[in-house]
Design goal:
By secondary structure, the protein is an all-alpha fold. It has one helix and no strands. The longest helix is centred in the middle third of the chain and has 52 residues. The mean pLDDT is 83.
């Protein structure tokens, strides 16, 4: 019975870690999308301001 309890605890810990990682990866994906959009806006701003000076 102790071995079954230890196995259940280990499986629960592994599932908690995997669930936390997927949540963190989902959050990081949104952060990456936002940073990408900001970088694209900054790039377009540089290109447009560069064309105006020529």
């Amino acid at each position: 019975m102790n071995i079954a309890l230890i196995i259940i605890i280990v499986i629960a810990i592994i599932l908690a870690i995997v669930g936390g990682l997927s949540s963190a990866l989902n959050w990081l994906l949104w952060v990456a999308i936002i940073v990408g959009v900001i970088a694209l806006i900054a790039f377009l701003f540089r290109v447009l301001s560069g064309n105006r000076n020529t």
